[in-house]
From TrEMBL:
Lineage: superkingdom: Bacteria
Predominant subcellular localization, coarse grouping: cytoplasm
Organism placement in taxonomy: Bacteria, Pseudomonadati, Bacteroidota, Flavobacteriia, Flavobacteriales
Pfam families per the UniProt record, alphabetical: Amidohydro_1 (PF01979)
GO molecular function: imidazolonepropionase activity
Cofactor: Zn(2+); Fe(3+)
Localisation: Cytoplasm
Ligand binding (N-formimidoyl-L-glutamate): 150, 324, 326
Gene name in the database record: hutI
Residues the record lists as binding Fe(3+): 78, 80, 248, 322
Name of the protein this chain belongs to: Imidazolonepropionase
Note describing how the cofactor binds: Binds 1 zinc or iron ion per subunit.
Alphabetically ordered keywords of this record: Cytoplasm, Histidine metabolism, Hydrolase, Iron, Metal-binding, Zinc
Catalysed conversion reaction: 4-imidazolone-5-propanoate + H2O = N-formimidoyl-L-glutamate
Amino acid sequence: MTTLITNIKELLQIRNSDITKVSGTEMAILPTIKNAYLVIHNDLISDFGSMENLPNLKADTTIDACGKIILPSWCDSHTHIVYAGNREQEFVDRINGLTYEEIANRGGGILNSAQKLNETSEEELYRQSEERLKEVIQLGTGAVEIKSGYGLTVEGELKMLRVIKKLTNNYPIAIKATFLGAHAFPSQFKDNKKAYIDLIINEMLPKIANENLADFIDVFCENGYFTVAQTELIIAAGIRYGLQPKIHVNQFNSIGGIQVGVQNKALSVDHLEVMTPEDIEELKGTSTMPVALPSCSYFLSIPYTPAREMIKAGLPLALATDFNPGSTPSGNMNFVVATACIKMKMTPEEAINAATINGAYAMGISSTHGSITIGKKANLIITKPIPSYYQIPYAFGSNLIESIILDGKLYQ
Ligand SMILES: [Zn+2]
């Protein structure tokens, strides 16, 4: 099966296969071809170039992309898409003046989601999560990481991870699963935190590894959640089961989470709303991808990740949604890219790099996703006719996507 796309106004994010991420000043460069063609063979990109050099080939399907821009699908490396119900009441409570921490202290927050999840069957949880996955696919996401962390019981965590596995099997989108048993302490362990950590390490992890349900291990390292020492203990246990760390750090406070992530070769450290000069220094020259979640900053009215300082220091940066019921009930990567430009002063080129190739890196899939490269997955966004790719962040409330290609096929 061969698909030929012709007359592409501009084909974005052309990379050689040896580029797995871009950092610092390289982030301002977005390699493109104007007036381009692209060839897809089965599920892979097999050729592309300028229309002047269009080869004479027999395609099964030809798509005329006149006036339209094509880019690799968004790579959303941080989500909590699998959850039950919603937390719209807390949203209204916050409008009325309560803080995120006050709501959490009243039994709201993550524990509220955990209660709902444990009362919901696996079938119903799958049904609700599937709707969200379909929505983010239509919004241009072609690879997504999904975390557990609303079970906080052995059965609840396994239920979430089984739902993620079922989504992976049933949808043509790349999915990576992360075990986040250390998302919050359940209230029955409030006075015996060691016992919950023992449960994570000695009961949850062996079962998860046995069923091969997770790729990564995550911990919410923050005051009131997991300390640096607890984080280190849990990620070390995950590493023993072959799960690379991807951790929540520096959302509200800088307490040493980045340091423990870097020391344990975390694939990514995520949130980073609060960054000290030492935190930025620590990340230099490492294999750990910093990940910013601007929709979360927007929704909670908390600081944005200091992208300019980090890029100036030579760091790479990835962008993700953090789609979750409490702090970011949105999986829209187009909004993330726009918000990164508007609020974090990233250029459109930097934001698109952060949401494609660097997002793929933060999921460990940049050899197969995140750029227009021969041999990579044909997961593409075809825009409506637009004047230039600046429209993607500029027209921040508009849906500019005309069609989606996943695994080489038009997704409908
Ligand atoms: Zn998160």
